[in-house]
Amino acid sequence: MARLNKVLLATFCGALIAAGVILFSPGVPRLLRGPSATVEAASEAQSGRIRFAVLGDSDSQSYHDTLMLGDPGARGGPWRATTWQWTEVLARLRGDQIDLGEWGAWGTGKYRAYFDEAFGRLARTPRKYDYRYNFAISGSICSQLMGHPLRQAIRLVDLMDTEPQAWRGGIVLIRIGVNDIGAHDVLDELSRDRNASRPTALINACVGEIGKAVALIRMRHPDTNVVLVGVLNNADQSVDWQSASEIANIDAGMDRFDNGLRKLAAADRHVYFLDDRAWFESLWGKRDEQGRPLYKTVHLSPGWAITNTSGDDPHHAVLSDGHAGVVWNTLWTQHLVASLDAAFGLHLKPITDGEVTGFLKQSFAVRAQSDLSPLTTSAK
C-alpha cells in the first residue's frame, strides 16, 4: 500500500509540473490559458486621444520612477526634479492628443507575474512608477520582448486585448537593442571587424526578436501602428575609438541593425522606421574623416549652449549616468511628433520651438540658481 501511495503521489506531482510548463510556456495559445481580462469593447470610452504604448529599455523608462530608480543620483542627480525623459515630455506637451495611460505604480515581482498569467490575469514585472502603457524597463535586452522574465510585448498585447477598439489607430513604439549591441565589448569587437561573429549574431537575434513582437502586435491588433526606433551609436559618447577605420566598422554594425528594422517596416504600411542616428547627427554632427570627435554645439536660447558631453545639468546632451538629458529628450519628442504625423497622418499638433524653450525654462532656471559645477566627462 505504501508503494502504491508513493506511485500516486509521484504521478500527481508530475501532472502538476507538466501543467505548470504548459501554463508558463510563451508559445501556448492564449485560449488555453483563458482570457487575461474581461473584454469590455462595448463599454470603452473613446477619449479622442491616441493610445500610445512603449516597449524598450532605460532610454524609455520614465526618469521620475522612484520604485525601480530609487538612487537619488540617477537620472539627473541634483537636477532630477526638472530632468525629464521623452515620454514624460510627450505627456506634458501633447497629453491632450496622446494617451500614455494613467501615471501610477504598475507591475509586481516576477513570480507574482508568473502566477497571475497562469490564472489568466494581466501581468507585468517589475513594479515601477510610470505610465500604464509604458512597458520599458531599464536593462532590457531584445529577448525580453517575448521571453521571460519581462515578456514586454506579450503582456502589453494582453492589456491591449481588454480594449481592442481603443487601440485602433493607436501606436506601439519599440526602442530597444542598445543593451544587446551597444556594450563596450561588442563595439570594440566591431571596431576591429565589422563582420565579427558575436556582434553579428547579437544583431541578427535582436532584429529577429523585434520582428516577433511586431508580428504579435499586428496579428492581434491589425489597426494599430508600430514605430521601430533605430539604435544609437554609443561610440558617439566615448573617446575609445578615434580612427576612421574603427568608426566605419562600428557604423557598419549599427547599419546592419537599422537595415533589419527598415526591412520590417518596408513589409507593412502600419510599421514605421525612425532613424535615431540620423536625428542625432542633424543636431550634434559627427566625427571628422579621421574618426575624431568633431561635434557641434546646439544653441536654443541666449545662454543655452548644449554640447555632446556628459553631466547632469541641462547644458550637457547626456546625463552623468549615460542617459539622454532633458534637452535631448525634449528635442527628440519634438522630432517624434513630427515623424508620427508624417508617417501615419494623425493630425498631431507640431511641437513648436517656442514650446521647446518654454518647457525647458524651468530646467535652466534651476541650473542658474545652483552653485554646483557641471561635470564634463565624455566626448568633446
TrEMBL record:
Gene3D superfamilies: SGNH hydrolase (3.40.50.1110). GO terms for molecular function: hydrolase activity, acting on ester bonds. Residues 103-301 form the SGNH hydrolase-type esterase domain. It comes from Paraburkholderia dinghuensis. Keywords: Hydrolase. This is SGNH/GDSL hydrolase family protein. SUPFAM superfamilies: SGNH hydrolase. InterPro entries: SGNH_hydro, SGNH_hydro_sf. The lineage of its organism: Bacteria, Pseudomonadati, Pseudomonadota, Betaproteobacteria, Burkholderiales.
